[in-house]
Amino acid sequence: MKDYAVQKLRNICLLAHGNGGKTTLAEAMLFNTGVLDRFGKVADGTTTTDYDPEEVKRKISISTAMAPCEWMDHKINVIDTPGYFDFVGEVMQGIRVAEGAVIIVSAKSGVSVGTEKSWTYAKEHNAARIFFINKMDEENANFNAVLEKMTGTFGNGVIPFQLPIYEADKYVGYVDIINMTAKKFQKDKVVDTDIPSDLTDKVTKLKDSLNELIAETDEALMEKYFGGEEYTGEEIRKGIKAGIYDGSIAPVFCGSALQNMGVQELMNAIVEYMPSPESVSTKAVKAGTDEKVEIKADPAGPLTALVFKTIADPFVGKISMFRVYSGTLKADSAVYNTTTEKVEKIGQIFVMRGKKQIPTDRLIAGDIGGIAKLAATNTNDTLCDQSNKVILDKIVFPEPALSLAVEPKAKGDEEKISSGLHKLQDEDPTFKVSINVETHQTLISGVGEQHLDVIVSKLKAKFGVAVNLVDPRVPYRETIKKKVKVEGKHKKQSGGHGQYGHVWIEFEHGDKEDLVFEEKIFGGSVPKSYHPAVEKGLREAIVKGVLAGYPVVNLKATLVDGSYHDVDSSEMAFKIAARLAYKKGLPMAGPALLEPIAHVEVYVPDNYMGDIIGDLNKRRGRILGMNPQDNGIQQVEAEVPQSEMFKYATDLRSMTQGRGYFKLWFERYEEAPAIVAGKIIEEAKKNMVEEEEE
Questions:
Q1: What is the greatest pairwise CA distance in the chain?
Q2: Collapsing DSSP states into helix, strand and coil, what is residue 265?
Q3: For the segment 140-177, what is each residue's pLDDT rounded down to a tens digit?
Q4: Which string of DSSP letters, residue by residue, matches 271-282?
Q5: FRET pair for 571, CA 20 to 30 Å: which of 93, 163, 328, 547?
Q6: 528, 529, 535, 537 alpha-carbon torsion, rounded to 10°
Q7: H-type helices in 125-180, by residue range?
Q8: CA-to-CA distance for 622 and 676, rounded, in angstroms?
């Protein structure tokens, strides 16, 4: 691949709802540029960008992949992203390093939630937007219905640059609105044809609408428009580019990626109208300060690059995908990582096309590539010259919404599981691994069930260990509600020294979560030297409650009386006496089971409010309030028992067709209702019996 100037680079992210045709479009683009001899198909598992075994097996994109190609003396870095919501972190990586987005819409299913999200992601990242209405060759394709929904959803800036031509209900060509010409597809080429008479009025109206949008991009063009003068070809091009750059124009193209119809025209538009890296600057701060700086895509400037993705390859090791924002990154050089504050040695640099690594000796500002085996570099790290330490804005990834526990299928695999999961965590910032010290379970957290299912499959395929996914155990607590005074006596005589410890302890509900231990001993019935042993005995005892074996909180224990023996008393004897008092006293003190309560914030469009509130009520939730947000979104605040929220990510997605999201954090413990507590206690006792039998 030859060297290209910054002006000749285009970084384009393909976005769509799942099954929209992004991977097939990327394949068609590669085929058109001569990179591929044969056109791969998703159904056959032969596409360039869906190369991971999981993607081949499931026939969906799971990871963001690169597909660089050369077209009209330009280099287009095509970034193919997943459409399924569970892999949104991959989309965040792809859109972060692109100046432009092609949003693919199915001519059959039209504007879906994924289309809306794609538009939002592109808008948030100030990426220029082009639409491609795909699958025009399929039955039930309806360009006009889809276009109407698009303009209704995204505004009148969404305007066709092409109109489809049909013959006998078959998609055969298009009208070029800008040039007022018509083309027909004939095998592998496109030939001129006449504009169908039934489209003439529509074409004229669309051209007028486009001229109006062009006029709004420049005052001189506005004067020309109102003066009734025709634009020159250069003025049209300049106005369209300006409108696409500022988001006021979003052109619509149409075709079939699978049949490679209309794809070359889309590629021409990408080269012609989409911004180059030179036309966009990116934000950074000087390392160690709050001073903001703007980074421009100048190959001669100081090096600044962002690692936007990490690939954990069990054979090659770690691959760091990066985008150069300024300067030139050269092979066999040294760079400074401002995140880890370490110098990294750069060995071989390569450009990735799917899984294929194409070596290169340098990459200039605006280009995208990969490096293997960087020791101290992870996703979101900035690489730069040591003389110019800056930190680029990081990619903001969504927090995991679903947590499940992993259990090894084979004993002794724990270490391999831990190692594999941590390597997969390096690869995927939306995936988290943690160990619950209380329940001793390894928890994996992700965006959704499919996400965690893929993680488990990868764990087996890449690292050779199989696990089961189970619901996490809820960390319940126990406490008491009444005050009792009980005796604990430990007396043992077995030749030689005996053991003697004797206490009277008052147990009551305490204000603090931790054990509060006090003593009100009169007359030295229990010497002070044994008081710490009594407290220690109680601290060991509260780890297991008397109802279901959960830790006891908010317990106040006061040592009020007791007795000792000059010879037989010992610290151990008083520890045992305290534990005996605990076991005897707590069942008499109104023990209660406490459940963890989570604070939940749910964000949904207005029309889903009734369903959401009804569902939270079913989960024993208390609604705290409803707060309107921007763009017709409502925030519902509630407190819900944690045990009711395990699968909420999946249920919320299903209730809102993927439009809703939520945040959740632990708030406090509350007494569980009797019916709930009864079930938990019964289950805990059953588990205790099973453990004893084992």
A1: 117
A2: helix
A3: 999 999 999 999 999 999 999 999 999 988 999 999 99
A4: HHHSPPGGG--E
A5: 547
A6: -140
A7: 143-154
A8: 17
